[in-house]
Amino acid sequence: MPVVSYREALNQAMDEEMARDERVFLMGEEVAQYNGAYKVSQGLLAKYGPKRIIDTPIAEAGFAGIGIGSAMVGLRPIVEFMSWNFSLVAFDQIVNNAAKMLSMSGGNFNVPIVFRGPGGAAHNLAATHSQALESLYAHFPGLKVVMPSNPRDAKGLLKTAIRDNNPVIFIESEVMYGEKGEIPEGEYTIPFGSGEIVREGKDVTIVSWSKILQHIATKAVSRLVEEDISVELIDPRTIRPMDWELIYNSVKKTNRLVIVEEGWPFAGVGAQISHEVSNHCFDFLDAPIERVTQEDVPLPYAHNLEVASLPNIQKVIRAVRKVMYLD
Amino acid sequence: MSEYSINILQREMNQTIVKNNVRSDLFGLSSEILHKWYDEMLLIRRFEEKCAQLYGMGKIGGFCHLYNGQEAIATGSVGAITPDDYVITAYRDHGLAISKGLDPRRILAELLGKSTGTTKGKGGSMHLFSREKNFLGGHAIVGGHIPLAAGAAFASKYLDEKRVCLCFMGDGATNIGAFHEALNLASLWKLPVIYIIENNKYGMGTAVDRASAVDALHLKAAAYNMRNQVIEEGHNVLKVYQSVKAAVDHARRTYEPSLLEVQTFRYRGHSMSDPIHGLYRTKEEVEAQKKLDPLTMFAEILTDANLGSDSYFDAAEERIKIIVDECVAFTENSPEPPPEELYTDIYAE
Amino acid sequence: MATKILMPKLSDTMAEGVILKWLKKEGEKVKQGETLVEIESDKADMELEAYDSGVLRKILVHEGGKAGIGAPIGIIAGVNEDIAGLVNETITIPEKPQIKEAANEESKTLLPSLSQPGSPSIATDNHVKASPLAKRLAIENKIELRRISGTGPQGRIIKRDIEPLIDGNKTISAKVPASIIPGGHRDLELSLIRKTIAKRMQESKQTVPHFYVTVEIDMDPAMSFRDQLNTATDSKISFTDILVKAAASTLMHHLNINATYLGNTVRQFGEAHIAVAVALDDGLVTPVLRNCEQKTILQINAELHDLAERARSRKLKPEEYQGATFTISNLGMFGVEDFVAIVNPPEGAILAVGSIVEKPVVRKGQIVIGHTMKVTLSSDHRIIDGAVAARFLQDLKILLENTVSLLL
User: Fold this and answer.
1) What is the largest CA-CA distance in chain B?
2) Which of the residues A66, A93, A192, A240 would you substitute to probe the B interface, choosing the one with the greatest number of B C-beta atoms within 10 Å?
3) What confidence category does residue C94 fall into, taking pLDDT thresholds of 50, 70 and 90?
4) Cα(C399)–Cα(C387) distance, rounded to whole angstroms?
5) Mind listing the domains of chain C with CATH numbers?
């Protein structure tokens, strides 16, 4: 199987979908001439020209709204936010126009648009450039929220997102762009609402996604294996729609759940997962559900504080040992 | 106007109208069109009055923003485009919806939250839509629709269609961020959108000179190198038509957008919950403006051109009354949306 | 056509309005569209225009007066029209379509989440902390939660506390496949252990004259003693540990129980080597704790754990299941209140321990809720008499009801 980086996988997805459908185009800051702030759109301008790969000024509300308006009348835009932090400038357009258009118009206008870009913290970027906003967008009916954790999922899910006739919030991760992984040969897509059991286990279920899954959860699982603890690691891949059955079946097997997420604790995605699991798997829980989240503070700049604030391996191990009544 | 309304008119049309040579300042418009425009503006006026009555009776809930006094803008602007062109506006949208051809019976049903409404009762007064008539809504967030208009124009250019998009907004919307971002992009990328400011001089109760650093709102286009014009006689449907037509032709030829400012007046409060006059404007000001009633003005023009008479205008009132009564009857006989509708139209297939 | 002027709804939140000023007088002509009256709403002062032309025949609500939305405030009619009927008519106010309170079908399941299907006799949940999983397993396997000491935080009963008991239950029926037809039979080869038990128990019953004495012990002191012990150590002290210690101490004062019949002599032992019965898959084994009279409860606990585990995994050395002077058998965890055991020859007696039962007891003339446990001493009447057995039990009871003496 071919081995590509996360950014190459995204590039391939956009390339293939643009070749397949003339109505697909890409718009965002520095996506064309600069070849992408993170090189995700490298080479696309040369291939498709300035009509379909469009540099925008710094005007998120404006160009997000243009994307939505054009989607209402027949185009299929991909709107890139240089980071999801900047999407907040376009928040009104996304949640009041894109999310609600089909409903408010009584079915007259749907909005087949993909908003994509990197989300979450990188390194030393400080408070306003490091936010994990998936729970914010997952709150709104009418939106779909997708968060691939590896190149194979990035490509398959982005293709599905572009073909979806609804607004899709596609959250990548800057620090994963260079990470390589195997992807299937040829044409493939991955449906929404279908998670993956990354690793089977029997003692405890860990649900995690995106960068935190790759960089923290998997490493914690390896350490736990050495302590003879068998973890079942689940990647939901899409936050909305969420693959609930996959999680319920796992918790019914292991009787223990730890959720590891990058967002803040209050009203985060893990809070929703915790509620649904305690509701649907009540008689199967041997311990209260544990969450490992970012600390409930704006992310500071200093390296040691940043590390202390974000989820880390020790916090995960502690949470697992707690639900297993060790220590 | 919708086919429905036109059919009524053709049924009832007074046959004694003289159709002879049209004056030059009627821009080559046929008497049919001119009569249609009169009926349309009258329909909008009587429709809005009926909305006011129904709101007072508690049958229309929430917000209801009436168009009384601004009819010339809807009729004159939509008169300058084709059915293929897009129209999008904010929440004062009943008049424009009627002009763009939505069935007034279904518009009223929408206001009363009935399932036969233009948006199945799920949108209400501020969210009238029709894909078929290229009416892109009906929007409630001030200025939120302005980038959407540029998007529709963008799509038209991308797909090599010759459509333009007319985007209506109030004077208050020219101060919000989305306005500026959209105008910059429309001018930068040459998008065939015509932005039309319906300057009725007040936001809710804040006069333009207390909200905008610039009084001549159309001049804001200069910041974006955009073609712009002010239409001082917004009560004159022909003047509106002339300016909008020029902007539309320019956009079709060059893809360049325009910002038009139409000076007008609303006879009612900002919405049904707001006073007609009082804290923010005097009764005298309102009364003075009523002398520039678009209907009376146009009636005078038609009379001068031998295209109208008292009997003609009385007959028009009768025709329109029939339409409005039919709207009310249709609405009262329509059911509310069934509970299952709560879960439809959330995601498209 | 006479029409009523109704108080209009002038804002979304308006419920009633105040008439500020009538701009027309009774008897005055009114044209459609003319302003009729000024009304104060909850948001602003608004004007109402006439919807019909005619004469303002009657003002029903005067300046300063209030009226609810939809209530008539005046009548417009022809100048000579009869309006008597309208004046007296009552109005039904047209309702604005309200969003019906959906989900007034509120979940009628306001039952406490502890409600369980079936088994009302297992009144476990009000005082017992257990994970939802543990509760379910307990119900499914008919295990009484209150008999179990939980090893989770704050004594929470968790899966690992229940699981071994499920295994125990299952082992009894493990060899019974579902396919056996009632009325039919099958023959199973006897294992070595089984053969040994068969021989010894038959021998005991045939040669040892058994008699049985039962006593009921107030266990509240022992329970709080145990809780206190458990705060002082990481190990989880069980009642069996305490019982072994108590029995050992009491035996030292009743050497006539800690004895064996030798025909012409009775041998009394100065050390208490106590065997504790451990259930296995296909039988029972009694590992021996040596010198319990000298060991602390903690030592007993550790040793018992170790021995029991090795007993279950068949790793006991011969000297570990031989040489007992006394045996304790506990069926309390199965809900058994009391039973009689068979003396293990050559020992003189065996103590059968039942479950701790929560029940009403009499203390100081009052009925209160207490916890009691029944123990039955089976004794070899060749060397032990009724009174001897009774005195032993009496002292055991006193010791367990005054547990602090165990420290002496």
Assistant:
1) 57
2) A66
3) very low
4) 18
5) 3-89 (2.40.50.100), 119-174 (4.10.320.10), 193-407 (3.30.559.10)
